[in-house]
């Protein structure tokens, strides 16, 4: 179930809009909203653009698009595909309505009026049955979304206690590929040198014999 939504500017974590939550939801999610602020502070220009962060009974899913972070707090059992479908819907509407103004605003919650669209969209995604039924009316989003298995998953404890960043894992994989290529080249050079050491004496003997035969019969 979709519980709460927060939209901030990625570059400085300035709140742009948020869902209007009732008092009960506000109290239940107080700790997790504080954790969301931590997530916003950990986001860098190299941060993973889509990520799910598990925290107790909830999961914080976020999407970064055009210097805007869209974050939803949902039940841990809520399907990630639907959570990111919801965030995709918000990002498309938000950039259409306010995209040109995002970089210029200075006060928090400058786009508070967006909560009307968030509330309407959230109601379509309140549970998996409603969201699945709405999928056909929203352009079959389940089929169009990218593979959710590619979305990075972290645990909130990693961020709180180990200070893990949200940088893209691709930087690590690129570095590993580069190092692997260096080792492969070094291995090839070593093999060539070993072959030369092994067969060079034999080649030298044959060369001397050929020279002697040529000199003897020329």
Description:
By secondary structure, the protein is α+β, with helices and mostly antiparallel strands. The chain has two domains: 2-167, Longin domain (Beta-Lactamase, 2-Layer Sandwich); 168-218. The chain has eight helices and six strands. It has helices at 23-28, 30-42, 80-98, 115-124, 128-135, 141-144, 156-162, 169-217, and strands at residues 2-9, 15-18, 50-55, 58-65, 68-75, 152-155. It has a six-stranded mixed sheet with strand order 2-1-5-4-3-6, with helices on both faces. The longest helix is centred in the C-terminal third of the chain and has 49 residues, at 169-217. It is elongated, with a radius of gyration of 29 Å. The model is unreliable at 135-140, 142-146 and 169-173 (pLDDT under 50).
Number of helices: 8
Tell me the series of helices and strands, N- to C-terminal: EEHHEEEHHHHEHH
Beta-strand fraction estimate: 15-25%
Percentage of residues in helical conformation: 40-55%
- Provide the domain count: 2
CATH topology of the largest domain: Beta-Lactamase
| The CATH H-level homologous superfamily of the largest domain | Longin domain
CATH class of the largest domain, anyone? Alpha Beta
Q: Report low-confidence residues grouped into runs of 5 or more.
A: 135-140, 142-146, 169-173
Straight-line distance between termini: 95 Å
Shape: elongated
Major sheet strand order: 2-1-5-4-3-6
The CATH architecture of the largest domain is 2-Layer Sandwich
Please count the beta strands (DSSP E, at least 2 residues each): 6
Radius of gyration: 29 Å
Decide which structural class fits the backbone.
alpha+beta
Kindly report the average pLDDT value: 80
Domain Longin: 6-118
Family: Belongs to the synaptobrevin family.
Membrane topology: Single-pass type IV membrane protein
InterPro entries: Longin-like_dom_sf (IPR011012), Longin_dom (IPR010908), Sec22 (IPR044565), V_SNARE_CC (IPR042855)
């Amino acid at each position: 179930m979709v519980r709460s939504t927060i939209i901030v500017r990625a570059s400085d974590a300035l709140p742009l809009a948020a869902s209007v939550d009732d008092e009960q939801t506000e109290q239940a999610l107080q700790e997790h909203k504080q954790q969301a602020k931590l997530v916003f502070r950990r986001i860098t220009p190299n941060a993973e653009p889509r990520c799910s962060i598990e925290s107790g009974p909830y999961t914080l899913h976020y999407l970064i698009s055009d210097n805007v972070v869209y974050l939803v707090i949902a039940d841990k059992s809520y399907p990630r595909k639907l959570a990111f479908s919801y965030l995709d819907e918000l990002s498309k509407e938000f950039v259409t309505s306010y995209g040109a103004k995002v970089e210029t605003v200075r006060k928090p919650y400058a786009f508070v009026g967006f909560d009307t669209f968030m509330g309407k969209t959230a109601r379509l995604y309140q549970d998996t049955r409603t969201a699945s039924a709405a999928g056909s009316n929203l352009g079959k989003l389940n089929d169009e979304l990218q593979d959710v298995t590619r979305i990075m998953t972290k645990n909130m404890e990693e961020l709180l206690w180990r200070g893990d960043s949200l940088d893209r894992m691709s930087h690590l994989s690129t570095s590993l590929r580069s190092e692997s290529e260096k080792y492969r080249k070094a291995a090839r050079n070593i093999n060539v040198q070993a072959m030369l050491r092994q067969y060079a004496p034999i080649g030298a003997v044959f060369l001397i014999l050929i020279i002697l035969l040529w000199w003897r019969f020329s």
